[in-house]
């Protein structure tokens, strides 16, 4: 077993890195590329894992990311070499300073803040007419530096600033990209984890920004727990996750009341859902298969899902790509861990594209939803040394 710090230090663009409380994984090289064809990505992954085992790959895994839309791009491979370690831990060491000049960036808002507020108002009209119960609207920042952005330094800062997050870096390069493209982030939201028959999901929905003043933070935590709007939004998500996992699991349990969990930048309502697989030997219940069944949850899409997906396409001016998709790993036994691709960015040479979204429900305030997206941008902006630009 390697040290978590050594795996982080060994990461280079093109590698796959993933860490959580369960441990860290660094994968290099490509033994096989997973292509779904007309089947599910989980089915294609299972076939690729079986073929890799037959060809002599020791303990093969599939790693990578899948985009938000059902027809979106995916980057899934069986790597040639995999190294593992325990989970990253907090240290007294300060994260390395960004090796770039924070003043040298150009910043484009897509849409402009006023355009996002207008989009929220249009979404509220759809909710008022009964077309939607909820839709998650995102906006994007496109940052361009004077020099290529060093992804290893950005990843290291994300991990060291919040070792408890699900941190990741995935090569998602596609034909036509001017340079290698990397999806990097630190997600707070576990979509699903499987270990043997044990399944865990931890949906988050209902949020408030975290601030420096601890007394104000205590007030915000209490307000979040007391908010009828946020609790209703959260109930949509937790209920859907429990319903989907209930198709595969017995002994399904969900917290009767949400709790508030914190990241360095946000407070979220959280519900932990656990279950035991009815048939762990069934290849259709791998971690990736469960993730595909759950995705997209109302936490990143809306209710009803099909109309929310079309509303997102209508109201968001920039395609989400991998944002609000899923990233993680699955092994030959079906075990693995997949998280929701939020608090993330795509880095390509000098360009960094960030996304952040907020759930719009009846009673939402457009200005407050804009402020929520600004707060969610802070995870990546802080790692880039650019807090305050959103």
TrEMBL record:
This is isochorismate synthase. It catalyses: chorismate = isochorismate. Keywords: Isomerase. It comes from Saccharothrix australiensis. Its EC number is 5.4.4.2. One of its GO terms (biological process) is salicylic acid biosynthetic process. Residues 114-376 form the Chorismate-utilising enzyme C-terminal domain. It holds the Pfam family Chorismate_bind. Belongs to the isochorismate synthase family. It comes from the Bacteria. One of its GO terms (molecular function) is isochorismate synthase activity.
